[in-house]
Amino acid sequence: MSTASAISPDPTGNTPALRPPERTLMGPGPSNTPPRVLAALALPTLGHLDPAYLQIMNETAEMLRRLFRTRNRLTFPVSGTGSAGMEAAFVNMLEPGDRALVAINGVFGTRMKDIVERCGAECATVEAEWGRPVDPGAVKAALADGPFKLVAVVHAETSTGALTDVEAIGQFVRETDALYLVDTVTSLGGLPVEVDAWGIDLCYSGTQKCLSCPPGLSPITLSDRAEQVLASRKSKVASWYLDMTMIRQYWGDERTYHHTAPINMTYGLNEALRLVFEEGLEARWDRHRRVSDTLRSGLADLGLSLLGDPAASLPMLNAIRVPDGVDEASVRRRLLEEFDIEIGAGLGPLKGRIWRVGLMGHTAREQNAVWFVEAMRRILGQ
Description:
Blueprint: E1 24-25, H1 35-41, H2 51-68, E2 74-79, H3 82-93, E3 99-104, H4 107-118, E4 122-127, H5 136-143, E5 150-154, E6 156-157, E7 162-163, H6 166-173, E8 179-183, E9 202-204, E10 217-222, H7 224-231, H8 244-251, H9 263-279, H10 281-301, E11 317-321, H11 328-339, E12 341-342, E13 344-345, E14 354-358, H12 366-379
Parallel strand pairs: 1-12, 3-4, 3-5, 5-8, 8-9
Antiparallel strand pairs: 2-10, 6-7, 9-10, 11-14, 13-14
């Protein structure tokens, strides 16, 4: 166990005073940050309109297009965590009186509904049991009660580990005039995400999960259709900070100042994306599946099982049922204190019933899966 102090004064001023302990981050996020990304974050800060920084912005946006599998012009990182990307997607599309359809099978679908209602829009829902994917057929049936301006689905539900078939749902949405919005905060970089091929109009993610860049940016992409809706709004976007009508002028050719971008975070994301493409997207997807298989095999040996159907479960976020008679909080505490492993607890109706174990990005390595299983073996006394 690490015993390093969080604060260690340096009288020379040449090194940071902070000394956080080293952990293996196996919760629902963040994941461990690769050394190259940490080094990029420490590079000299430039001004947000410096020509050298503008070139870094261009490179980062182009790599995000490759990652999202899209040609969308408006593709960039929102200044803020994944929740900022979520809010940006809704507040820029919805106006008071609009109707939206939201699929809910966990915490983040519930948050989508909350934001829709905060926009003054009417929200219809399709719900699935927490731990199960959303049924595409149920979405198709709900669409008959339209028209809807927007349909929103979470691809990878971080609160439950459920993987929803957003490609199939997209086929039904395309039969209507609704915009299709997909949350890929946990899936982007770890599972296939095909924005153009699946007919997705708005898609957002986060940097801290399968991309293994610290939290602070939210990659987002808007289709031409979404841009047209944005341009035809009758009212101002409710959020000034997340107003794409202004932000797109900064990320576009105009380079019009809106807010001071998080310069060094852009460096970190740029380097994280370089690592993704050096490995190769397909190879990265395969690595996440392979490491998850190692974890699940070890869990089975311990008599532990997943919350949902393994065939519809995320490779990068495993929701493990807590056995009867086991204090789930005590296990998490011992993992942190004795093994320097962080995992997550259940939320909402799953509180106390599951552990959420992440294998995302840089953390998705065979040795981490094996070490976690061994730590659980010792804690559970097997």
